[in-house]
Amino acid sequence: MQRMLWAVLGGFAITLIIGPTMIKLLRRLKVGQQVYEGAPEEHMKKQGTPTMGGLMIALVSLAAAFAARVGSPDWKSDAMLAIAAFALLNLAVGFADDFLKIRRRKNQGGLKEWQKTVPQLIIALGFAAYCYAHPLIGSAVRLPFTANEWDMGIWYIPAMAFVIYCTLNGANFLDGLDGLLGSTSLCDFAAFALIALLFAGTAGASDRQYMWLDVGILCAGMAGAVMGFLRYNLHPASLMMGDAGSMYIGAAFVGAAMALRMPIWIPVAGLMMAVSLLSTTVQRYYYKATHGKRLFLNSPLHHHLEKKGMSETRIVSMYVLITLLMCLLCFLMLPAGLG
Q1: Residue 266: count of CB within 10 angstroms of its CB
Q2: Taking the CA of residue 317 as centre, how many other CA atoms within 13 Å lie in the half-sphere pointing to its CB?
Q3: Rg over CA atoms, the chain
Q4: How far apart are CA 251 and CA 247, in angstroms?
Q5: Is 338 contained in some domain?
Q6: Phi, psi of 140 (to 5 degrees)
Q7: Domain membership flag for residue 105
Q8: 138: domain range?
Q9: Does residue 292 form part of some domain?
Q10: Could you tell me if 90 and 55 are in contact, meaning their C-beta atoms sit under 8 angstroms apart?
Q11: What angle do CA 254, 153, 273 make, to 5 degrees?
């Protein structure tokens, strides 16, 4: 428990301290946000705001987590190291997208859809295969409200790759308002850190206990770094996380859930990611099917709510409250002996 607290406090303090330097550096390098042309008119004033703050989240969260970890590094079965590598690979995809947008000075000037999808799926399949072969994770997933598990066998790999792909893009779509993804993911990482601690408390002194503690510490480091980042990302934001940050957060979230064998909990804790992904997907196919008609005034849903007159801060507050309730539900979905 103390190590988790140190990871949270360390991640928070370091991000808080280096934030101003990061903002100055990004401004000097002219790394500015490129606002989507179809975004609500109020967003145009965000054009040029320093972005790629996700690099700071990644650096600080991993530094805090690895400094506080319990187990010793093991290149073959180290879940914490694997999640970190998985998240950084997805960060690299987001970084490439951000870089091209900034270079071309156009929001839609980044990677083409297939250029993001192909590496995302390759990385997703690789991480799913790793979890499948891991002696302490395997192909069995926890079932809610019971101590039973569902062994998916070899189908675990394609199923989890699909879950990863959806979660990454859900996180990416959710990052559309100041502090939105950061605030909701803070709730998610805090909840998963506590759940990992509960699991470790029932495992006894074993490799599984150390793995769960390390996963919890990683989530705690993420929570601390994101909390510090929010100091600069809440409305009006002086620093954006960019696709690099949203991809990293999405990957760390789904990676921790898979290591805890809790992929069924992902759409619960990450409900607002799912809503953002679903609303965007439905809008796209409805637009094509009806030859130009729109189901929402704008997508994802949070932009539709903006068009309806709801303020940015009110939408963020509503999304955070919903996420908090969903995180509480995640605890209720645990077996009685743990929850």
Answers
A1: 23
A2: 6
A3: 19
A4: 6
A5: no
A6: -90, 135
A7: yes
A8: 2-332
A9: yes
A10: no
A11: 20
Tell how far CA 86 is from the center of its chain.
12
User: Are the beta carbons of 177 and 171 closer than 8 angstroms?
Assistant: no
φ, ψ for residue 169 (rounded to 5)? -75, -30
Q: How many CB atoms lie within 10 A of CB 156?
A: 22
Q: Is 100 helix (H, G, I), strand (E, B) or coil?
A: helix
Tell me the whole-structure pTM to 2 decimals.
Answer: 0.95
**pLDDT tens for the chain, residues 1 to 339:** 789 999 999 999 999 999 999 999 999 988 877 776 666 666 667 777 899 999 999 999 999 999 999 867 776 779 999 999 999 999 999 999 999 988 887 777 689 999 999 999 999 999 999 999 999 999 999 999 999 999 999 999 999 999 999 999 999 999 999 999 999 999 999 999 999 999 988 866 577 888 999 999 999 999 999 999 999 999 999 999 999 999 999 999 999 999 999 999 999 999 999 999 999 999 999 999 998 899 999 999 999 999 999 999 999 999 999 999 999 999 999 987 664
Number of domains in the chain: 1
Q: At what angle do helices 242-259 and 180-203 cross, to 10 degrees?
A: 20
The DSSP element (H or E) to which 53 belongs, if any, is none
CB 143 within 8 A of CB 264: yes
Strand, helix or coil for residue 241: coil
Contacts of residue 192, Cβ cutoff 8 Å, sequence gap at least 6: 215, 216, 219, 253, 256, 257, 260, 262, 269
* Overall residue count recorded for the chain in this entry: 339
Distance, C-alpha 232 to centroid of its chain? 18
Residue 339 in domain = no
Number of CB atoms found within 10 A of residue 103's CB: 11
